[in-house]
Amino acid sequence: MTPGGLLTFCWPKTWLELDDNGNLTDHSNVIDQMRDHQGYDLYGPGVNQNTLIYAGYFIKNKFQAAFHIIGHYREPGSMGAPYDVVVDGPISVSFSFDLQASD
Hints:
mainly beta
């Protein structure tokens, strides 16, 4: 965290995802996972070494962070609608996290 309050962090190296059948799946590359799910390639300042780089600030007791990317559709994604068709135009992606202070 910078003296001005900027906090930068990256997507975890590995994580678990709950699938539609309730099974946990191990993952280790968020860029490949997003390409498989949504069908687009990601690039820009928020992508580095196969991960997403977030930057954000605490505002009182709330933390807000974002990653800045550009997406280009390559093929229909595996998640179904609305990712089952290729979009000709800009896209917007957002993720949210619930963060809790630890002792």
